Amino acid sequence: MLPYQSLTEPFEADAYLKRWLELERKVSAKGFTWATLYENYEDNQYMSDSLLVVPSSLVREVENASRAVNDIFAKTYEQILKDRSVIHKTGISVFLWDLLLTEGKTAFSYFVRYDFIASAKGLKVIEGNTDTPVGLVEAAIAQDVLCQEYGSPNPNAHISANIKSAWNQIIKDYRIGSTDTLYFTCADWHNEDKQTVQFLMSLYPQQAKYIPLEDIVVGEDDVQTPEGERIDFLYRLYPLEYFLEEKSGTGELIGERFIVHMMNDKVKVINPPSALLMQSKAILSLITEKKEEWYTRSEQAVIDQYFIPTYDTAISLESYVKKPVLGREGGGIQIVSGGSVLEEDVDYYQEQAVVFQEYFPMPDQTIDTWDGPYTGKLLIGSHVINGQPSGLFFRVGGMITGNLSMFVAYTTG
Known about the structure:
The structure is a single chain. This protein is about 30% helix and about 25% strand. It has about 425 residues and is α+β, with helices and mostly antiparallel strands. The protein has a domain at about 310-360. Strands 1, 4, 5, 6, 18, 19, 20 and 21 form an 8-stranded mixed β-sheet that branches. A 5-stranded antiparallel β-sheet has the order 13-17-14-15-16. Strands 8-7-11-12 form a 4-stranded parallel β-sheet, covered by helices on one side. Keywords: ATP-binding, Ligase, Magnesium, Metal-binding, Nucleotide-binding. InterPro entries: GSPS_pre-ATP-grasp-like_dom, PreATP-grasp_dom_sf.
């Protein structure tokens, strides 16, 4: 368990809540507006005011692991382009295959978050969030406010600079001219996504406009704003596979038309389509299956060190985590150990193909909450922006890390 600092010791509920609400006001003023989440008909605390004290050696180890894991993902994408028959394992709609396998001159993804467990056998990556990763506002803004509250150094201080560098690379790779506009979109009702988009847009160095996803006009020939301005470049914090379900007011599947416009290069999106391909958890089972065929000996050593054995079936595993290949926020996950179900979510993604990942328990971590000290399971998110490790994102929650697992800031010591 990592040590943590508390501003309210011993715990007194009224004093704690008063101080926490003041802290919520401070982070909200900077753009982090979901320190409280309303779910299950009640307010839930999402931001802890604790500060984890993380050894500098662990931070460096996560950064090194993130580089190595990102290199394996990039190599895996290259191999899939050479052996396209494996794409059927990803669980992604056949309608998208040609789009996902289009070779371009971009990175497979510019904004990624890898989730790690600090297990008894070392750091283990459990998945890559390569398509629409969030947690950037927590890691950049809330993290900074909390470190200031404690008078502690902020190890994530370089996130904004790395994002700016990524935008410059994207401008070059996508050939976005100085007079071109990059539109930023997400579902307008989703506060977390909208604030994340606003944060990313604030760091973009050229012309940019926000357009709610609901306002995008998918025409016969191109994609436009309601005012008739053509959208040539689009950053979307919206899962690419969700576009297939988007309908017009008359029930027409305009999402399919949008995908066709992407295929015909009428609109260029960021993250690129390859990011969805690499988001599938079937990528992890492919890495296990193809370890000796696709990778060099040094790459195989990285896989042995950081990747968890993952399979299409659970035949060889006594304890495993069953995961839908395109699940998000912990939905549809089942944890089984010794024949007993330890935890499961049956509300989402039950219709998807699944993979089975060897079970590595997450370590316990205690943090401060409205209800006093809480001990949950610690997950380490590592942002990789334009291929560079760019700050950590810690969450503490249940055995399945879901939407309500709490964000907690960190410093080094």
